[in-house]
Amino acid sequence: MTATEIETQHETDYALAQKAAQGDMGAFEQLYQRHNRRVYSLCLRMTSNVSEAEDLAQEVFIQLFRKIGSFRGESAFTTWLHRLTVNQVLMHFRKRGVKMEQTTDDGETPIQIVKGTENPNAMPVVDRIALDKAIGQLPPGYRTVFTLHDIEGHEHEEIARMLGCSVGTSKSQLHKARMKLRGLLRQQKANE
Amino acid sequence: MNSPTLMKIRMFSARFEIPRIHPSVNLVLFAILVLGALGSSSVFAQQHLSKRYPAGKNVRVELKNISGTITVESWNRDEIKLSATLESPAAHLSPRQTGEALIVDVVADNRGRSDVGDINFKLQVPVNSSVDLETKSGQITVSNIRGELVRAHVSLEGDIELIGISASQVYAQNTIGNIFFDGEFARGGTYQFQSGKGDITIRIPADSAFKLVAAAPNRKIALGGFWNDGIKSLGDGRKFVGDIGEGRSRVMVTNFQGSITFIRR
Amino acid sequence: MNCEKCQDLVSDFLDGALSHEDQKTLNSHLEECLDCADVRNDLQSIVGFCRSNRGVYVAPPNEKALWLRIRNVIEAGASPGMLATAPERENVERRNFWTNWVGRSWELSFPQLVAAAAAIVLVVSLSTVVGLRRWQSGETVKNNNAAGAANLSVAAENVRSRISQQQQLIDYWNQRVEFNKARWNPQMRETFDRNLKVIDQAVNDSLDSLSQNPHDEVSEEMLNAALNEKLSLLKEFAEL
Questions:
Q1: Residue ranges for chain B with pLDDT beneath 70
Q2: Is C85 in Cβ contact with A25 (below 8 Å)?
Q3: Is C133's pLDDT higher than 60?
Q4: CATH code for A101-191?
Q5: What is the 3-class SS of B64-117, one letter each residue?
Q6: Is the domain of B25 the same as that of B77?
Q7: Based on the domain organization, do B31 and B81 belong to the same domain?
Q8: Which chain C residues touch A84 with a CB distance below 8 Å?
Q9: Is B213 domain-assigned?
Q10: What mean pLDDT do residues A5-33 have?
């Protein structure tokens, strides 16, 4: 590792962002190295599609470069980048005509109330692979809310703002997403 | 599949049995002969298909072919004419129109089929159409289109010719084959050309203005009249990066084994 | 409380958003109703797993290639002053230094050659003749300064690890293509093989030039582009 590399490791995101805003590609590359996994993971979880996620991550960093001058350091860089990423994915959904009706108050599909379990205690131990697979089978609207709340740890108020829906909708979508995931995980177990 | 054999037998029997049978039977035999011939031709020759679709001024055509040529040209009508010649074994073809888009997906329509003959497409579209064309192999020719997007993607081999194009997004990519672009770059547009092995030629007006990234490992990059001192040569001439004029359009050209040539029109 | 109401409240319960009253009613129902208790347990394990895995991220299939693509787009859209990237500036400076001291012909070090050769052997069974020849010529210039050498071997190591990462993906998709290939018509098989050779040639050319100079960004970029191209071709034809 060179002296410059060691030095830049201790630089804050804000300092790197300022340098990048001046056109320092080295600083921007540092930011990319620090955050690309986080951005890609979020894209992947929201789309459940490797190549779409890669394209989106690429677009996020291009947008980041264009907008980096407007980052003033009031919030954490990660929060700012996170919001940029979510917006990018949502915009992609809209462009692609992905129906997000699951995130509106209208036409919600009722949850089936669980009565008399067919295979008692069949809920498998949750693991990354099974969960990712099940998340991939969720409708985009459910997947978005579940990813933002349970995986990324956002509050309903924030999610409602990002998605332009009510807090109540965000809550009910989350619950439905969890119930649907439960069903999918049980199904996976039954098919094994 | 066995109709030629059948036909020969019928001809043979017809020739030798006619003197001994009633004229009406003759007629029946003749009919069989004709039908047999027709039947055999439908199995062995090409099938043609032609259909017109109503279209607004700004339509989008998405075509995914497996193998065969694709030719797109503009015409002066607010409709799309799709003509296709299907080689046997003929592929399934079910074009669908949704809103402003005509979608033809030969790949999806024939998934699971092991052997599908070439389809040669010809599309006539309104001049402002966007065209998104893909094929595994075969030539793509697009001429006189002024829509938002022109995309020609040949996964394997086939030349790509884009002539008289004025679109804000142009993507052309193949593995083996030449790429020829003759058109103009719109302000703010994006233009990407990539080939594995073939020559990329870009013919544009002399006053074109754009930001360029061009890479060819064999150093065969000729910017001709578009060269200026502000263009940086990286890796000893394997990559050129820089501005030509004041334009905001972005042009990216990559050729793994072939050449990149810019020509002033 | 009935099951419907109970299951409606479970999520709020797990998120700590229930009033004390509701929580009490819910708990008493859960004690009696095994089905609803199952739902609670299942959701709890899903939510618990997610919470405990927060901050665990997956890397994009090829981090470096993605970066190069991003940089390409940015470079094409950036103002002229922004075009010289830091590593490129370093390269220019280093080149000047060596032009002055040892001439332009060799910038190789012994460890650099070893690492680069290892990268090649690992990825494609490229003929070792080339590597050996480079190795031998490297002996004459191995007295480079130590810092430079370490830096170069890091670069070679990065290339190596990236390629092996990409190679695993390529192997996976290649297997799927091979599995399906028998179904294609002979003409398609032939065309596919012929085209894949062109991409492989591009990969090998870039590797060859990286073995001479692991810091060569253009070769690295071409290598990444070629590997990506190969991967997307394989993916596409695995579905055919």
A1: 1-45, 247
A2: yes
A3: no
A4: 1.10.10.10
A5: EEEECCEEEEEECCCEEEEEEEECCCCCCCCCEEECCEEEEEHHHHCCCCCCCC
A6: no
A7: no
A8: none
A9: yes
A10: 83
**Total domain count, chain B:** 3
Residue of chain A minimizing CA distance to C76: A62
Is there a single domain that holds both residue B222 and residue B186? yes
Domain limits for position B75: 46-158
Q: Quick one: closest CA in B to C192, which residue?
A: B156
- Domain edges within chain A: 3-95, 101-191
B123: tokens are: 């599309």
Q: Which of B157, B243, B254 sits opposite C225 (nearest CB)?
A: B254
Say whether both B66 and B147 belong to one domain: yes
Subunits with 3+ Cβ pairs within 8 Å of B are: C
With contact defined as beta carbons under 8 Å apart, do C219 and C159 qualify?
Answer: no
Among chain C residues, CA nearest to B192: C73
Please report the residues numbered 46 through 75 in chain C whose beta carbons come closer than 8 angstroms to any beta carbon of chain A.
Answer: 46-51, 53-54, 57-61, 63, 66-67, 69-71, 73-74
CATH of domain A3-95: 1.10.1740.10
Residue B58 and residue B29 share a domain? no
pLDDT for res B255: 96
Q: Could you tell me if B253 and B200 are in contact, meaning their C-beta atoms sit under 8 angstroms apart?
A: yes
What would the mean pLDDT of C148-176 be, rounded to a whole number?
71
Cis peptide before B89 (omega within 30 of 0): yes
In a domain, B152, yes or no: yes
Pairs of CB atoms within 8 A across B/C: 102
Q: Which pair of structure tokens corresponds to residue A171?
A: 């809550």
- Which residue is closest to B138 within chain C, CA to CA? C191
CA distance B257 to B237: 14
Q: Do C38 and A25 touch (CB under 8 A)?
A: no
Q: What is the pLDDT of residue C144?
A: 44
Let me know if residue B163 belongs to a domain. no
